[in-house]
Design goal:
single chain, 7-stranded mixed beta sheet, 4-stranded antiparallel beta sheet, about 10% strand, Pyridoxal-dependent decarboxylase domain-containing protein 1
Length: about 775
Amino acid sequence: MDAPLEKIADPTLAEMGKNLKEAMRMLEDSQRRTEEENGKKLISGDIPGPLQGSGQDMVSILQLVQNLMHGDEDEEPQSTRIQHIGEQGHIALLGHSLGAYISTLDKEKLRKLTTRILSDTTLWLCRIFRYENGCAYFHEEEREGLAKICRLAIHSRYEDFVVDGFNVLHNKKPVIYLSAAARPGLGQYLCNQLGLPFPCLCRVPCNTMFGSQHQMDVAFLEKLIKDDIERGRLPLLLVANAGTAAVGHTDKIGRLKELCEQYGIWLHVEGVNLATLALGYVSSSVLAATKCDSMTLTPGPWLGLPAVPAVTLYKHDDPALTLVAGLTSNKPADKLRALPLWLSLQYLGLDGIVERIKHACQLSQRLQENLKKVNHIKILVEDELTSPVVVFRFFQELPGSDPGLKAAPVPSTPSAVGRERHSCDALNRWLGEELKQLVPASGLTVMDLEVEGTCLRFSPLMTAAVLGTRGEDVDQLVACIQSKLPVLTCTCQLREEFKQEVMATAGLLYVDDPNWPGIGVVRYEHANDDKSSLKLDPEGEKIHAGLLKKLNELESDLTFKMGPEYRSVKSCVYIGMASDDIDVSELVETIAVTAREIEENSRLLENMTEVVRKGIQEAQVQLQKANEERLLEEGVLRQIPVVGSVLNWFSPVQASQKGRTFNLTAGSLESTEHTYVYKAQGTGVTPPQTPSGTRTKQRLPGQKPFKRSLRGSDAVSETSSLSHIEDLEKAEHLPGGPDAPEADSPEQLAPAGAEQPAAAQSRAQRPDDDKPQVEEPESLR
């Protein structure tokens, strides 16, 4: 690229291109070094300070910018746009610098140049997207073009609006129709920009009986228009979707155009599916958008171009009204907004533009075809062949349900369908977060739909050019989905069993948390637990913290977390996803036994603390009493320092040493007289055993906790147990069995003439340990 720069006659342009290339190289190299340092922070000089008088060079300033961009990130950057800007991105960025330079030209040259840039860009966009004889408005805010179009429609329908202003609108209120599937906040934005009250907005519901549930209901729209006309209102503008913001569905634009022509309504179309107008084959529903009054395009994300404006194409014959509405301007700076797009379109060319859009559509088709072969995945698309947006979700079939039916709205009363819906939503959120971490180049997003619930959206037209998504990334995404399905299905199957086990276990309370994607949530109810209260429970929090620590020490495949209960502040234990067949009964029993042990140990410690405190008080009282007795026994004279020493020398007092010792096991205060007499401490009482679980499962070598035994090991254990029972039954029929009479001596157990085993002889000669041995007198021997 250096050779073409050398051929540029204008030295300022050549220097500008060289500086931009050098700046981008420095920023990208700095980011690459940051990644190679494995997340180590750079020492950034972002602390505010005084402006240096001598100034700084370009390298130092760019280094500061790089530190501000990446130096303060504690985690890995979520966006990788800098890595995939590419050469066409550099051209778009050059447009902003070039625009600042062009603005310094004289007025005549500036006017000619800006007019040429604006006309060329408008002509190219209208031809690429099949919008003949259109005008273009370039704007930074994506919704700004629609607001200008609304102003144009108001000036067109209200001839006296320039003179009378709001009084004209008050006499005949305008109505703007929006689909229920439109972008959130669009209607509020229009009202704020136009100064209209919210009653001027009319939300048109989507289909409920026939067609897509994300398409505008045309019949209901016509009914609304007739009602507004009867009330003296003016139907002004209709916003249709060629690819809704949620699932990418396209309204019936052809039918809507006929309805708008019938009632004189301005038709505006927006949506991601408008990008397919550049392809050779376009669906009829999207192709009808070329006949609308205006449309908004976003070529920046479609083509992977940073900092390029959005474009609103429109058709209107009155230049004065477009100037009043703000769609056209005489300011050169407004016309220069098209410069980055003008440069980028020339760099890519028609073939490059079509290839990028075609590649994104092929990625979506590839994902659709692969997901059709995956079980437990439902695809929500309007037209599988033409929609560039793929929306899917994981689902678990209910017994007796039809998987082909769409999910119904969540009922107000708790039911099996409602719980299943909430559970699937939580699992889909978990699946979406996992896939975004495993395949970041996919650009996958998680969204909540009113009817279907939580779904995952793949929209390569908005992300592929920026993230550099390839076909291999789509294959990796499908492979990751298939690898996560066993975890999802196993968790769904174990949820109900876990709930039943917890409800059947004393001391445990099952917590129904619809937002948790794991096996379930459980809370231990201790003795002092107030079930009716929802306030913070310090004792329960302490028990659950100890329980969480014990469960994590088991090193099982399950994940355990502690948090507040759903709709409460009490602590609970959350059990995560199950990757394999889990023995739920053992899991629940372990939780109950461990929590009970922690509670008993805590209570034992509290009781011991109280006993020790009372024992110390009692010991102080007894010691004080002993001192008083010693004072009475020895007399007052012996307490005087000099006199007492003389008396003790002539007549020593034999005073016994009395002390007190506290027995922690018995919880009682004892005398130390035994210690001074026998010169040894007593052994005391044997402490009680620590409570333990009622069942300890025998695990195979390498088997982790809460795992079900393999079938082979079960068969071996069953065979060994049966053989052991048969041996016991045979032993019962032997003479020495449990039912045989007791033998007087070992000789009676052996048949006649047989030698006794050595062990039997030694047992016969060895005296009984339990009976006392009395030595025989010598006279009787």
